């Protein structure tokens, strides 16, 4: 590639396994033309911070300031805007061009959203964003809701972040089956394996100019010029990594990971 790599920040609140997966894709040269410049977290105990700094990625803690419970909606909104203005200052300082939210537990205000139009992505562990996304649909609750409604298929969604909650234009999805006997833990692990592959692919599509937005709808072109084929060839490097590190990544052997993904 003859262009400068796109500078990416990942914003996380917890364990940071999606941050790790994106970093691994970059280091394995699967995800190309992307530079991970920063991991930003809003909780001091976010494991993502340690992951980043121990692997040579700058880790920045900007602690979330919780408004008082008695605060008015306007005051709460102002607190979010103030926080986002601090984030924005840090991103501008590092010339960040693209933002990936990965388990970030704050809703962004228009301060950030408007500063990075169609350049902020989020990953969500379900397919139907209408029913299984939105305010309060986070973590385990998503998988509980999917199981309660007896879905046969779940998966993950990468979408652009706009001024809605989880309803921005969808860029890429990956489905996984729901099995009889699944519980929120087994289902979330199966979805997580897919998340780790899907987020980097979505980022690569965007970086490679394969995404066009027209009338609020995303048009992706993954096939011309053999793009998808070339991605799959490179992705083998990451699949091998998932296989070799399956126990530490998912707590199960790869045979099980494979089984849960491809059945
Ligand atoms: C993922 O399931 C993601 O879809 C959701 O939050 C979780 C973050 O996990 N938005 P991790 O911190 O990346 O491990």
Description:
With 263 residues, this protein is an alpha/beta fold. Helices cover 43% and strands 19% of the residues. It contains 10 helices and 9 strands. It has helices at residues 17-27, 47-54, 73-93, 110-113, 129-132, 140-148, 184-207, 227-244, 246-250, 254-262, and strands at 6-12, 34-41, 59-61, 98-101, 120-124, 153-160, 170-177, 211-214, 217-220. The strands form 2 sheets. Strands 3-2-1-4-5-6-7 form a 7-stranded mixed beta sheet. A two-stranded antiparallel sheet has the order 8-9. A hairpin with a 2-residue loop joins strand 8 and strand 9. Helix 1 (17-27) packs across helix 7 and helix 6 (140-148) crosses helix 7. The longest helix has 24 residues, at 184-207. The mean pLDDT is 93. 5-O-phosphono-beta-D-ribofuranosylamine (GRF) binds at residues 12, 14-18, 102-103, 123-125, 192, 195.
Name its key features.
263 residues, alpha/beta, 7-stranded mixed β-sheet, two-stranded antiparallel sheet, binds 5-O-phosphono-beta-D-ribofuranosylamine
Outline the fold blueprint.
Blueprint: E1 6-12, H1 17-27, E2 34-41, H2 47-54, E3 59-61, H3 73-93, E4 98-101, H4 110-113, E5 120-124, H5 129-132, H6 140-148, E6 153-160, E7 170-177, H7 184-207, E8 211-214, E9 217-220, H8 227-244, H9 246-250, H10 254-262
Parallel strand pairs: 1-2, 1-4, 2-3, 4-5
Antiparallel strand pairs: 5-6, 6-7, 8-9
The structure holds 5-O-phosphono-beta-D-ribofuranosylamine (GRF).
